[in-house]
Design goal:
By secondary structure, the protein is an all-alpha fold. It has one domain. It has 14 helices and no strands. It has helices spanning about 5-15, 20-25, 30-55, 65-85, 90-100, 100-110, 120-140, 145-170, 175-195, 205-230, 235, 240-255, 260-280, 305. Mean pLDDT is about 80; it is low at about 285-300.
């Protein structure tokens, strides 16, 4: 891998591990719906002009129905569910639970008949879900079933979205899909986000968290991710999926002084091992197209690509 590739890889590994920390800070003052509105609105202001300048939005118009479905399952639902979950769960635990996305993706890819389920993948699924059980059983217990269920739905959404993308939107430009999805999400959240906006002005920490989420973790992150795919290819770029939870865990413990237990470490190790096993390729392939190619027909995604779809981030 080139030096530029390593820089982009490390940047993305860190950037998409940060949102859990920023969401935890922001929901102290902002309701989840208002946070989603603020984040999508600001990110849209940054990405839409770029997409318009490159002529990337017009090709999306005939595909507004799948675009709407994609936006609902990749942005609207998971982002508000994450906000709700982090009103009660720690940022580090939330990040670790979301790390189960590759496991859910592997199940969905098998259920839809896209790839066979070999013995190593079955073992990987069992190991990974054991890790989730360890986290829920020891670090959460019966104290927060609602937030845990919300994170489970997030994992399902992040696994379903790329399947929608592959079947209906894979031939459209990546940046255009992202920019349009953010605009649609902002419009959908405008009424409820404004209605639930707090009467008191949020503190400086909240505003910085919102700016960080919108500018760094959304707008800049997507641009860098597409550059990473172009530099190292989609197969290598998927490895950041396994780095993000470690960053989220480290930031939660170091910055927010969240608890780190033996169960936390064991659960993370099991989820990571299970994700690697369940999404590994059974045989080499000559070339793997990007998750959202700039041109070409629709296709099926592998488990690796589903796990690291560009919009599958917190």
């Amino acid at each position: 891998m080139s030096r530029r590739g390593w820089v982009l890889f490390l940047a993305m590994g860190v950037i998409w591990g940060i949102p859990y920390l920023l969401i935890k800070v922001a929901v102290e003052d902002l309701p989840p719906a208002s946070l989603v509105l603020a984040r999508t609105s600001l990110a849209s202001l940054l990405l839409v002009p770029v997409a318009v300048g490159r002529g990337l939005l017009r090709p999306l118009l005939p595909f507004w129905r799948p675009m709407l479905v994609y936006t609902l399952v990749e942005i609207c639902a998971p982002w508000i569910l994450l906000g709700y979950a982090e009103t009660q769960l720690s940022s580090s635990l939330t990040g670790l639970l979301v790390a189960a996305v590759p496991l859910v993706a592997a199940v969905l890819v098998k259920a839809t008949g896209h790839e066979p389920m070999s013995l190593p993948r079955v073992v990987g699924l069992l190991v990974g879900f054991c890790g989730v059980a360890v986290l829920v059983g020891f670090d959460v217990g019966a104290s927060a079933p609602g937030p845990v269920a919300a994170v489970g739905l997030v994992a399902i959404c992040y696994a379903v979205g790329p399947l929608v993308l592959a079947r209906h939107l894979a031939h459209l430009p990546s940046l255009g899909v992202v920019a349009a999805s953010l605009v649609v999400a902002a419009v959908l959240y405008l009424p409820v986000g404004l209605a639930r906006w707090p009467d008191e002005v949020p503190g400086a920490d909240t505003w910085w968290a919102v700016v960080g989420l919108a500018v760094v973790c959304t707008a800049v992150a997507f641009i860098l991710f597409f550059e990473l795919i172009a530099e190292v290819g989609p197969a290598r770029s998927t490895v950041i999926t396994y780095i993000n939870p470690a960053v989220a865990l480290t930031l939660g413990v170091v910055v927010l002084d969240e608890q780190f237990t033996a169960a936390t470490g064991a659960g993370f190790a099991l989820i990571l091992a299970g994700s690697v096993l369940s999404t590994r390729r059974e045989r080499p392939v000559e070339a793997v197209p990007a998750p959202v190619p700039a041109g070409g027909g629709s296709r099926d995604l592998s488990t690796e690509e589903v796990a690291a779809c560009p919009v599958a981030e917190p």
